[in-house]
Specification:
It is a single chain. The protein has helices at about 1-25, 30-50, 55-70, 80-110, 120-140, 145-155, 160-165, 170-195. Helix 7 (about 160-165) packs across helix 8 (about 170-195). The chain has two domains: about 1-115, Rna Polymerase Sigma Factor, Chain: A (Orthogonal Bundle); about 120-195, Winged helix-like DNA-binding domain superfamily/Winged helix DNA-binding domain (Arc Repressor Mutant, subunit A), CATH 1.10.10. By secondary structure, the chain is mainly α. The radius of gyration is 20 Å and the shape is flat. About 80% of the residues lie in helices and about 0% in strands. The chain starts with a helix and ends with a helix.
């Protein structure tokens, strides 16, 4: 049952890649196939990341606009979805940053006594050390595990990750498990070193 879903996902990815090659080559009619392949997947990731359907729809439209603008630089034979996910991810990050800016402005309007207490120097140090340990551990992961973690963070399903990476769902699960185990061990080791 799982194998048939993987085969279907691979067929969809192949069709999307072929449509993008045609579109990049000047076949404007192929855009509808590119749209049908990209829009639902990018929307799912964006709505999970942003929690806002309207913002997610904006991310989809901007992703497709960026694909249209850059279609001349599309490399024939390259998979479409990782490229689309990379574009969408940048747009989601931009949307999150914009939200944070708006939130900071709103928080700035809150009266002084309603402000949350600032973190203590010890709490800041602990957070800094934890973030540093995670960065080091992430950098030491093999590239395949880093990519799986990135796609997972973007909300990609196991079958989508497998298709994007050109591997099986089982291999994706294994890479994800190994990456998470390594990160857990790094954090556990860090907490044992603390006084």
């Amino acid at each position: 049952m799982d194998d048939s879903r993987d085969d279907d996902a691979a067929d969809v990815a192949d069709a999307a890649d072929e449509a993008m090659e045609r579109y990049a080559g000047g076949d404007d009619l192929a855009f509808s196939e590119v749209y049908d392949a990209v829009a639902p997947r990018v929307f799912a990731i964006a709505v999970r990341s942003l929690g806002d359907r309207t913002l997610a729809e904006d991310v989809v439209q901007q992703t497709l606009l960026n694909i249209h603008r850059a279609r001349g630089s599309f490399v024939p034979g390259a998979p479409l979805m990782p490229w689309a996910y990379a574009i969408a991810r940048r747009l989601v990050v931009d949307a999150v940053r914009q939200r944070r800016r708006e939130l900071r402005v709103a928080i700035g309007e809150v009266r002084e006594e309603e402000q949350p207490r600032p973190a203590t120097p010890h709490e800041e140090l602990m957070a800094y050390q934890t973030a540093g340990s995670l960065r080091v551990a992430m950098a030491e992961l093999p590239g395949s595990q880093q990519m799986v973690l990135q796609l997972r963070q973007e909300g990609a399903t196991l079958s989508t990750m497998a298709t994007s990476l050109g591997t099986t769902v089982t291999a994706v699960k294994l890479r994800l498990h190994r990456a998470m185990s390594t990160l857990r061990s790094a954090l556990a080791g860090q907490s044992e070193e603390r006084p």
